[in-house]
Design a protein that fits this description.
six-stranded antiparallel beta sheet; 62% helix
Length: 600
């Protein structure tokens, strides 16, 4: 016995028609009043046999020589029953159909005619023995051959149609496999193309072009990028600029569309950004925001895809088509893959751009450090050395005329030299505070305060949580030192402050965030006014504070007003969770207008 994974369809035809013949034979015998005859027990045996065949068909099982055994059983029972029930003149003459049906369906036309020939021999033998009229023999033979040929022909046609259906299914499956393979290849090419470029604009353009290729992969060469495959297909990438969406790249959008800014506060865009899930809709003509886009006015089907990574939403990809049934589930899935790959490529492009900006910033910082050192040397030690040279020349002339006055002048020169030496040592200390590496942040800040007191007579008070300072990495300690040094110098030069306070403590109820504050009692300033005109100023003190705060993933807050002093506040994360918290707070801060910003 063998078993198949798929059903034997022809077995179901045979057992079904066998039930019809059994039913018809039983009804004929009942009408003739012969239902209780002994020979009718053959029908019971045939019923049991057919039930066994039904079970085997339901289990997709077959006997060895299954077809031959079925035909033999039908021949045996039909022949015996034909002889016992009175031949063609009996009430159940059409039992001869049993072998014709099984042979015809199992072996098509040839099997039906061969079974008819055998049954004609059985009928002829019966007629010869019972001396039946020749006309009955002729009619019976012709009817048997016609029925055998009919069943064989029906089976042959059904077999041909089944083979044709299977051939079409195989071709469709082969075509679908080719489409799937080509689509996978297109997606692979798309991924390669997106990751091959680190140009921000090129990534967006490539993403839109490859969308067309991925959606129409069955119509084009998968190794080519066809951007004009479907003239009705519209697409765009919308990215956030501040709190509004701008059209960064598009296909089939008008120039007026490219100038549009969408606040994403209502309609489809607001729902997509809030829920973070793709959305398929019909016409967007009634949408309060997308209805303004002319490039989507003829589209009766629009698919919107959020571009997000984690909790960050970069923007939205929009695809439109005039056909209302264009965006099938399969096409939406493909566009979803494109969207995810585009987000990764955009992240890479942004990281590359950030690295390029950081490189330029480092060059600018180094250049500014050189300029600052040059200014400090020019304003301090250089002027002092020039003054000492002039005073030495004066003292030389005074020695001959007024030795006492000359001695006083030499004392002033000595004092000037000592002060100049202190200034130079302070500059060297701020350039590389060795005490920071050897004794830690608290010692470095204290030493800096002492040098400010010694050199400039500036009163600086240091308050540092020692437990917190011991948890800081050397890199963060260095950045904090330079933030304090920059802020203290700014207060000394511009605030005319009598006192400066430096405090470093953990944030209450959030010990994984350090809070650094540099406060003074100076003249203060208008933060909004200074930020507004800062690009016209020669100093980069506040820029340095912001950039150094970003180095430790911190959050900077400047709180000041004229006549009320100033507070430089820096929140520094000590864990990744705290860094994520401050990152979100920094994004909200950057989206607000320039001015005084209160930290949360």
């Amino acid at each position: 016995m063998v078993r198949s994974d798929s059903p034997y369809i022809v077995d179901w035809y045979v057992v079904s028609l066998r039930w019809l013949v059994l039913l018809g034979t039983t009804v004929s015998l009942a009408l003739a009043g012969n239902i209780l005859s002994l020979e009718n027990l053959l029908l019971v045996a045939l019923t049991g046999w057919n039930m066994l065949m039904v079970w085997m068909s339901s289990e997709n099982r077959r006997l060895r020589y299954h077809r031959e055994i079925n035909i033999a059983m039908d021949f045996l029972i039909a022949s015996v029953f034909f002889w016992l029930s009175g031949g063609l003149l009996g009430p159940a003459a059409w039992v001869v159909l049993l072998p014709l049906i099984s042979a015809g369906f199992y072996f098509n036309l040839i099997g039906g005619l061969a079974a008819a020939a055998v049954m004609v021999l059985v009928e002829g033998a019966y007629f010869f023995i019972h001396d039946t009229a020749r006309v009955y023999i002729l009619v019976g033979s012709i009817a048997t051959f016609l029925l055998g040929g009919l069943f064989g022909y029906i089976s042959q046609q059904a077999y041909n149609q089944l083979q044709e259906l299977r051939r079409k299914q195989a071709l469709a499956q082969e075509k679908q496999q080719k489409v799937d393979t080509d689509r996978l290849r297109a997606i692979y090419n798309m991924s390669s193309a997106l990751t091959a470029s680190l140009s921000y604009k090129r990534v967006l353009d490539t993403a839109l072009d490859l969308c067309v290729n991925a959606l129409h992969v069955e119509e084009v060469d998968p190794d080519q990028v066809m951007t004009e495959m479907d003239p009705g297909f519209s697409s765009a990438v919308l990215l956030f600029k501040g709190e509004e969406l701008m059209i960064a790249s598009s296909r089939r959008f008008t120039r007026a569309d490219l100038r549009a800014f969408l606040p994403a506060k209502e309609g489809i865009l607001a729902k997509i950004i809030e829920e973070g899930e793709p959305m398929l809709t019909g016409s967007v003509a009634q949408d309060p925001e997308l209805g303004r886009i002319i490039g989507l006015s003829q589209c009766n089907s629009v698919f919107c895809l959020p571009m997000r990574s984690g909790f960050n939403v970069y923007g939205v990809m929009i695809f439109g088509h005039p056909s209302p049934d264009y965006f099938t589930r399969e096409r939406c899935d493909v566009l979803g893959i494109v969207g995810r790959q585009a987000v990764i490529a955009i992240q890479n492009a942004r990281l590359y751009q950030d690295l390029a900006d950081e490189k330029e910033r480092m060059v600018e910082v180094q250049e500014e450090a050189r300029k600052k050192l040059a200014r400090d040397l020019h304003d301090g030690p250089t002027q002092s050395v020039a003054a000492m040279a002039m005073r030495v020349s004066l003292a030389r002339r005074m020695i001959e005329r007024d030795p006492k006055a000359a001695m006083e002048e030499l004392d002033k020169i000595e004092e000037l030299a000592r002060r100049t030496t202190k200034e130079i040592r302070h500059m060297l200390f701020t350039l590389r505070p060795l005490v920071l590496e050897s004794q830690g942040l608290t010692a470095a800040l204290t030493a800096n305060a002492e040098k400010m007191k010694e050199t400039y007579k500036q009163d600086v008070t240091i308050q540092v949580d020692e437990k917190l300072a011991s948890q800081l990495e050397m890199g963060k300690s260095g950045v904090i030192f330079y933030i304090v040094e920059e802020a203290v110098n700014n207060a000394r030069k511009h605030a005319q402050a009598a006192h400066i306070w430096v405090r470093l403590n953990p944030v209450p109820k959030q010990p994984d965030i350090a809070f650094l504050e540099i406060a003074d009692d100076g003249v203060g300033f208008d933060v909004a006014a200074v930020n507004k005109s800062y690009d016209k100023r020669g100093s980069l003190g506040m820029v340095n504070l912001r950039e150094r705060t970003e180095l430790v993933n911190g959050l900077l807050n400047i709180d000041s007003a004229p006549g009320k002093g100033a507070k430089i506040q820096v929140f520094i994360p000590l864990t990744e969770e705290a860094a994520d918290l401050l990152h979100n707070a920094r994004e909200r801060q950057q989206s607000q207008p320039s001015g005084q910003v209160k930290s949360e």
